[in-house]
């Protein structure tokens, strides 16, 4: 038998190509005689456009076209609301180019198309726009107060949505509780900052009527559908290709950014290729961001530490528009109880408009905020009741015999019930205790303190709803010339290793090497149906679709091979690139089987010649293809998950805080993670480690800063702090594998897991390190040296 690929540590197929610098990104696409785009953007957070003169820009040498809202026809409309919800009234979304008013610094006002980017940028400076600035309020707590300046006149108190969910009977539970812990926590705004900024290029063939778009998007099929709709083209006349993409993290799945519509429009109108490559500042001021939430959370408990009720009311900053609806806030609200057995929950949120860059999901999507709230509250509960932090969690964790654990009344972002499907939460906590040895830490902490060193232990659990539907599909085909197995799916990759993990799934079914499975994705001509890469769903939804499809092709292959070898199907096995009669050396290559299953054969290859040796396979009394049969070895199938599957984990750290420099050094960091059955542990660890690195950014460094007038003051890598590799500690990753009962592969998502718990772990550790110095509570991230200094010397953080 061939060695099993599923679960093996196999190097990514794509790495050699990328390491040699042979990747092909949007800016690498050779487009002859291409025009280039630059945008005029609003310098005000909130203003009324009183006039605009583009005549000088249109007259500038090298300019092909200048577009304002008056020039874009059917595109002059508010863009789609992607996820409607009854909690929103008159939800506001952005126009491709501003009409009348602007709502944040960086909003697109006009588009310049010119012979090169330099000319386009010069012409943009010639557009004369007069603005009437309006009052603004950036702070979300002040924005909801009576009399605050409104972002949209249609929304009093800047409330975009108000939603309450209830599980159990929290009022009754509150009455019987013996203790209540109340805290306020805050997580600040950040940005995805992908290595490659967003990019889009387009060509239009007037002879065939075909529009081809190269887009660094996470959702090419959805982009195709939108373009076909708004330009009134048949879908088969629109091809969207997502080539290699240098990171996405959710920022590249917004539908639509203005350039994704305007660049194709210009290509169609001007009859030449048109390209827009976003620069770093534009990425800061024009591409979506996430994170700011302020939670007021209460844990109502017995004196034993058992939590009987949770109440949480939080504000969510949605920016100037709300294209994703309440998705982020809803994920946060349904993750707020974490891995804990809390039977009674009341959770409320208000999504708040602010005159800032619009907010859409960024890796984590509400989970880091809810994790920070519940884990900081659990630490505070332990402190209030004089309990050990490990023990208070142990007393509240869901037990293995309690799965599936349903939070009745709570609906996840997919609109389905919150049902935690499987897990070993107690075992994970025990593994963390073994790794950090908290029982021994107190004496070590005291000894270090005597030497002038301040050590602290941080701890945080998390859960992650993954694998959202509605569906994905897969196509598997054995090539009759080479015998290689081709796989197509509607997703696109931004570094997740799809080409390898999907190949591992198929290789096991077809008995071939992983290197002989070729994945083609990110091209709407390769696969016609699908959703997108987001929400830690690729392995769960596409992986199972591909698995189901590969099983169909496997059955067809075994049946055809049995016919060719004149054997019983049960006596045939697939391995080493062929079909073998078990226990013998009689076999036939996959290429020959694929050729033999096609009644029209080709004579110029070895597979065709080999196929002719199996003359009995071609004997038949009826038509060459029986009713319901298809030529070749290929199939297409789909998978639709019944609901989300819930991954989880626990992070712990030992940190050292320098009270003079107010800096944090991580001495040890441990992550225990469970994403069900692992397809490739190396890729899982890469995903988790990447998430942890971003989590450290959110915990200690990264914060988008606005001045009171709404201008972003750190819109560059000079001013926006990001951790280097030198700031990321060595991480010990330990795995549990608790299969999900919800899908055939037993897998759960992993893409966002690493970033979720880092913030509360660091805050927990710093607080523990400084408790003897009166350092106070750390309920706000990113946790900066200034905040530590204020806590030590200025009265709190």
Characterise this structure.
- The protein is of the alpha+beta class and 797 residues long.
- It is built from 21 helices and 29 strands.
- A hairpin with a 5-residue loop joins strand 16 (405-411) and strand 17.
- It is globular and about 85 Å long.
Provide a quick synopsis of the model.
With 797 residues, the protein is an alpha+beta fold.
Strand-residue proportion: 15-25%
Q: Tell me the number of strands.
A: 29
Helix/strand-derived category reads alpha+beta
Q: Mind summarizing the main beta sheet?
A: 7 strands, mixed
Mean pLDDT reading: 95
Number of helices: 21
State the main characteristics.
single chain; 797 residues; alpha+beta; Aldehyde Oxidoreductase, domain 3; Aldehyde Oxidoreductase, domain 4; 6-stranded mixed beta sheet; 21 helices; 27% helix; 24% strand; globular
């Amino acid at each position: 038998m061939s060695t099993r690929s599923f679960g093996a540590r196999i190097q990514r197929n794509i790495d050699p190509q990328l390491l040699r610098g042979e990747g092909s990104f949007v800016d690498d696409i050779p487009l002859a005689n291409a025009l280039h785009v630059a945008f005029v953007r609003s310098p005000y957070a909130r203003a009324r456009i009183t006039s605009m003169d583009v005549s000088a820009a249109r007259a500038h040498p090298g300019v092909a076209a200048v577009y304002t809202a008056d020039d874009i026809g059917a595109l002059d409309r508010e863009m789609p609301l992607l996820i409607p919800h009854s909690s929103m009234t008159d939800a506001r979304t952005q126009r491709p180019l501003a009409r009348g008013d602007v709502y944040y610094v960086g909003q697109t006002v006009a588009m310049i198309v010119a012979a090169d980017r330099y000319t386009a940028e010069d012409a943009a400076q010639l557009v004369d726009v007069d603005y009437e600035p309006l009052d603004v309020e950036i702070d979300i707590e002040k924005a909801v107060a009576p009399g605050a300046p409104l972002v949209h006149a249609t929304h009093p108190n800047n409330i975009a949505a108000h939603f309450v969910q209830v599980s159990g009977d929290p009022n009754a539970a509150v009455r019987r509780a013996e203790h209540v812990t109340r805290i306020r926590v805050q997580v600040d705004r950040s940005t995805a900052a992908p290595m490659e900024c967003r990019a889009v290029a387009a060509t239009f063939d007037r002879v065939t009527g075909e529009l081809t778009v190269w887009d660094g998007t996470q959702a090419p099929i959805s982009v195709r559908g939108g373009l076909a709709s708004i330009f009134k083209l048949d879908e088969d006349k629109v091809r969207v290709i997502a080539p290699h993409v240098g990171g996405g993290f959710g920022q590249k799945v917004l539908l639509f950014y203005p350039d994704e519509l305007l660049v194709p429009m210009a290509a169609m109108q001007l009859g030449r290729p048109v390209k827009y490559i976003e620069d770093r500042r534009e990425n800061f001021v024009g591409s979506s961001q996430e994170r700011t939430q302020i939670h007021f959370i209460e844990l109502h408990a017995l004196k034993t530490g058992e939590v009987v009720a949770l109440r949480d009311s939080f504000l969510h900053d949605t920016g100037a528009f709300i294209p994703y609806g309440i998705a982020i806030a809803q994920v946060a609200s349904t993750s707020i109880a974490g891995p804990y057995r809390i039977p009674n929950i009341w959770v409320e949120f208000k999504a708040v408009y602010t005159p800032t860059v619009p907010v859409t999901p960024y890796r984590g999507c509400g989970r880091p905020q809810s994790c920070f709230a519940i884990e900081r509250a659990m630490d505070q509960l332990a402190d209030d009741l004089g309990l050990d932090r490990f023990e208070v969690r142990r007393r509240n964790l869901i037990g293995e015999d309690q799965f599936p654990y349903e939070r009745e009344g709570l609906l996840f972002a997919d609109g389905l019930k919150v049902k935690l499907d499987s897990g070993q939460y107690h075992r994970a906590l025990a593994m963390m205790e073994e790794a950090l040895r908290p029982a021994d830490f107190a004496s070590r902490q005291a000894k270090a303190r005597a030497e002038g060193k301040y050590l602290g232990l941080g701890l945080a659990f998390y859960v992650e709803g993954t694998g959202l539907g509605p569906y994905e599909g897969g196509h598997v085909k054995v090539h009759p010339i080479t015998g290689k197995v081709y796989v197509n799916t509607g997703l696109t990759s931004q570094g997740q290793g799809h080409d390898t993990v999907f190949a591992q799934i198929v290789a096991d079914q077809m008995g071939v090497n992983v290197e002989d499975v070729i994945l083609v994705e990110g091209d709407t001509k390769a696969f016609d149906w699908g959703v997108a890469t987001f929400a830690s769903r690729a392995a769960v939804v596409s992986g199972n679709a591909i698995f189901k499809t590969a099983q169909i092709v496997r059955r067809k292959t075994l049946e055809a091979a049995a016919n060719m070898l004149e054997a019983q199907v049960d006596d045939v096995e697939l391995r080493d690139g062929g079909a073998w009669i078990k226990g013998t050396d009689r076999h036939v290559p996959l290429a020959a089987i694929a050729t033999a299953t096609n009644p029209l054969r080709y004579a110029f290859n070895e597979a065709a010649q080999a196929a002719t040796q199996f003359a009995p396979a071609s004997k038949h009394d009826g038509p060459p293809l029986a009713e319901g049969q298809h030529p070749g070895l290929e199939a297409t199938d789909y998978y639709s998950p019944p609901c989300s599957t819930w991954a989880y984990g626990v992070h712990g750290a030992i940190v050292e805080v320098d009270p003079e420099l107010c800096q944090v050094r991580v001495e040890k960091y441990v992550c225990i993670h469970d994403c069900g059955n692992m397809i490739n542990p190396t890729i899982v660890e890469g995903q988790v480690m990447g998430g942890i690195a971003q989590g450290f950014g959110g915990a200690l460094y990264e914060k988008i800063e606005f001045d009171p007038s709404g201008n972003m003051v750190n819109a560059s890598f000079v001013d926006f702090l990001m951790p280097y590799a030198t700031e990321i500690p060595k991480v010990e990753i330990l795995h549990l594998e608790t299969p999900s009962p919800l899908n055939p592969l037993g897998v759960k998502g992993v893409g966002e897991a690493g970033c979720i718990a880092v913030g509360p772990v660091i805050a927990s550790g710093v607080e523990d390190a400084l408790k003897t110095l009166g350092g106070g509570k750390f309920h706000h991230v990113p946790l900066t040296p200034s905040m530590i200094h204020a806590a030590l010397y200025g009265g709190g953080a």
